[in-house]
Amino acid sequence: MGFAVSLLNAVFRRMFTSAGLLPASATVDAAGDGATLHFWAHPSLLLPSKEKTATAVTKPVVVLIHGFGPDPTWQWAAQVGPLSRHFDLVVPTLLFFGSSTTAAAAGRYSDAFQAAAIAALLADHLEVFRRRREVHVVGTSYGGLVARQLARSLPSIAGGGGIGNKLVVCGSDLVKGEEDDAALAAKGGVEEVTELMAPADGKGLRRLMALCVHRPPKFIPEFIVRDLLRKYFADKREEKIQLIKGIVTEEQDPQLNSPLPQEVLIIWGEFDQIFPVEKAYKVKEMLGEKATVKIIPNTGHLAHQEDPKMFNDILLKFLLPSSAIANGAK
């Protein structure tokens, strides 16, 4: 990994540690495949808990689920600080990203499979449900699909406690169909959407970056593109392609697009070129009256990175109780 990418990686990891998060890993057995899931979490969530006193403050939990691209430290660096003032965080690295992996057969790779691994992490390896904590789930892009699946499963695995009563999806087309993939592939100048989302070379990565950001940098040195490609896109590329192909559809799961019991916040970038902004309202229509849409002006697909202040303000107002907002929580 080149110096510039290494430096950025160190900066983002430092932002996580400054927010009180620790890196860890666990072997989760969601489906008999012994997946290894790497994650970041606050110490109070780790087993054995480092805060076992009866008077220890038990905060609600927020699970942050990343999309395709670099490590979650890159994707959620601007959120962990503000969120950690009010919540205990769990930030998993999805399977086939970073060092998280599984021996499961390729035919089983899906957003539901990813969610099952995270659910097993929460239930078996973290101090979440025993203390009956609230669990909110936040996902961006592909991570939003995983977040939806996780939110669906939380009420049953929590045993009546720790119900995921709020879900946030960011630039995540939960009603995506084959025609949407075809339109995105055409926009990216490729034959299949997998070529765009899992680029094989520097040209493909530049194409993806140009579509993801509303105002992309005018110049990115070739050595940075090359290092990003090698570190975060070329690794396990075939498995990532299978993840895209394995996204669960309504045909496979007739209940997939049913309204959820949780309150849902849908956040979208005004100029999202991956999933056009009108998709936000189609997602809301599908999710029903408990869903709310917030559009962040002058941002693209990575709204949480392009305007983190507005994104964080919207997120905290949704997740925090009204009493905390009235008291000026930030």
Architecture per CATH nomenclature, i.e. the level-2 architecture: 3-Layer(aba) Sandwich
Q: Identify the quaternary structure here.
A: single chain
Query: First CA to last CA: what distance?
Result: 36 Å
Helix content: 40-55%
Which CATH top level class fits?
Alpha Beta
Mean pLDDT: 89
- Give helix and strand order, one letter per element, not per position: HEEEHHEHEHEHHHHHEHEHHH
> Uncertain runs with pLDDT below 50, 5 residues or more?
none
Strand segment tally? 8
The number of domains is 1
The chain-level structural class is alpha/beta
Shape: globular
Overall description:
With 330 residues, the chain is of the alpha/beta class. The chain contains 14 helices and 8 strands. Strands 1-2-4-3-5-6-7-8 form an 8-stranded mixed beta sheet, sandwiched between helices. It has helices at 3-18, 72-75, 77-84, 111-124, 142-157, 178-188, 193-197, 202-212, 222-233, 237-245, 278-287, 303-306, 308-319, 322-326; strands at 22-28, 35-41, 61-65, 88-92, 135-140, 166-170, 263-269, 291-296. α1 (3-18) runs parallel beside α3 (77-84), α3 (77-84) packs parallel to α13 and α4 packs across α5 (142-157). The chain has a single domain, classed as Rossmann fold. The mean pLDDT is 89. Helices cover 42% and strands 15% of the residues.
